[in-house]
Amino acid sequence: MNIYTRRAAAALALIGTGLAAAACSSGAEDDSTLTVCTNVPFEPFEFSEDGEYAGFDIDLMNLLAERLDQSVEVVEISFDSISSGEALNAGTCDIAAAGLSITEERQAAMGMSQAYYRADQALVVPAGSDVATLDDLDGLQVAVQSGSTGEAYANDNAEQYGYEVVAFESMGDIASALTAGSVQASIADLATWNEMIETATDLALVQTIETAEHYGFAVQKDDTELLDEVNAMLDEIFADGTYAELYEQWIGEPYTGNLDQ
Amino acid sequence: MDTASEAAPARGRMTARRRRRLVRGVQYAVIAVVVALLAAVADWDRIAQSFLQFDIAADMFPAVWIPFWNTIVYTVLAFVFGMVVGVPIALMRVSTFAPYRWFATAYVEVFRGLPALLVLFLVGFGVPQAFPGIQYPGGVYGQVAIGLGLTSSAYIAESVRAGIQAVPKGQVEASRSLGMSHTRTMVTVVLPQALRIVVPPLTNELVMLTKDSSLVFVLGVTASTMELSKFARNELTDTANATPLLVGGLLYLLLTIPLGLLARRLENREDQR
């Protein structure tokens, strides 16, 4: 029996050290890092390349971190956790930069910054598909990203066009599902599709859907301090031309000086 | 079949064996036909192209070792939490004090009944919103230990309870008659034997947890806290190829197969006693 009690004691000691180690390792809250919630891939705004995160949003977050004398740490999380506000309000990260359109619901749930990009939706199908417009979607399955404005648009119009909405966790999953043929079309943000179909040649963008949305960054609901910093940063780079430079670099066309043109 | 009939002396017992051999032979034949059919139907070039791109697999190394290690860490943390909570719950389940039994029963029913994903969401998003400013020790590691550990503790509690009840009553009676208190009997006589009995089911629980650690991505993961499934899925997206899924799957098996073998060995050792 003795050996078992000794073993039990050893197991308990192990458990104790494990808990102590867990308690000691550093937490997410740290003044020197700006934790940024995002969902990749969402080209050209955020994507990972050789283990590094890059994109329009990531560059803007780096500018913000520079201003705050912090460094960016990217937290990958499902988009619906971002768009519902739960990731921010649970303290998973300081700010969300995820090609997040400003909506009334999101303004109520989180602190939303001023607009920094004008976004529309697009209909994408596998290359060679018969679908040319929304009118051709009757009886088909349409992929959307869970929690996105594309999902909201698709749900609002599902009855009119007679398709079925299928929600996916990331844009990468949608691209895989389209290629594999498990869905026949997708509605999601235009800028991202434009970028993704350049590499995924087996997909085709067939219709632009003008929804006139605007992307904004989101912070925890009462974090007005960080929200003021984000807005001040955006004001500054709109004025000094940094924004126009980044816009041209990532979107691939010159900035007109007005988000909506 | 021929060799079998030649070797078979004319004894009544042998007909049964021959029949058994025939049935077995048919089963082998069916398997051979199915495999041959699959081999003929499958588009091997296409399969190789989707799953066996060695350069893509090679590119995953050494980066894949960080998520691989995290998968182990998440599993161990959740298991430790599950043990620390589950064993006391098991003791409460067999307690003579009724309120303990009620609490333990309710606890087991709730956390065995809730999907692990839902519990993770509750721990990660529900609790912090209900109690603003709450900090889990170890950040995401603490969240995982609790989120997966709660579900696990319910299963562990049930296994350990079965183990406690499997310890012969005579042991308790003997200890009690020697003047040991009820608690002393439990801690020094029953529990050590019970834990030994439940090592095989607990190993199974560890295998389950290894796979459940793939749910951690819902809490939000950084490059340094990413686990194996999320990593493999990201690689799938980046490369538009399924090879990373195969590599990720093999790495899970690298963890779970030794655990399964260990469980079987422990079980066998138990049988021999």
TrEMBL record, chain A:
Domain Ionotropic glutamate receptor C-terminal: 33-253
Primary location recorded for the protein, binned into one broad class: other
Compartments in which it is found: Cell envelope
UniProt keyword annotations, A-Z: Signal
Record domain Solute-binding protein family 3/N-terminal: where: 33-254
InterPro entries: Iontro_rcpt_C (IPR001320), SBP_3_CS (IPR018313), Solute-binding_3/MltF_N (IPR001638)
Signal recorded as keyword: yes
Signal peptide: 1-22
Family membership noted in the UniProt record: Belongs to the bacterial solute-binding protein 3 family.
PANTHER family registered for this protein in UniProt: ARGININE-BINDING EXTRACELLULAR PROTEIN ARTP, MEMBRANE-BOUND LYTIC MUREIN TRANSGLYCOSYLASE F
Protein name: Basic amino acid ABC transporter substrate-binding protein
Automatic annotation (TrEMBL), chain B:
Keyword terms: Amino-acid transport, Cell membrane, Membrane, Transmembrane, Transmembrane helix, Transport
Cell compartments where the protein resides: Cell membrane
CDD domains: TM_PBP2
Annotated ABC transmembrane type-1 domain residues: 68-263
Membrane-traversing stretches: 21-42, 72-92, 113-131, 245-263
SUPFAM superfamilies linked to this entry: MetI-like
InterPro entries in the record: AA_ABC_transptr_permease_3TM, ArtM/GltK/GlnP/TcyL/YhdX-like, MetI-like, MetI-like_sf
Domain of life: Bacteria
Pfam families reported for this sequence: BPD_transp_1 (PF00528)
Membrane topology: Multi-pass membrane protein
The family this protein is said to belong to: Belongs to the binding-protein-dependent transport system permease family.
Protein name: Amino acid ABC transporter permease
Protein's organism: Glycomyces endophyticus
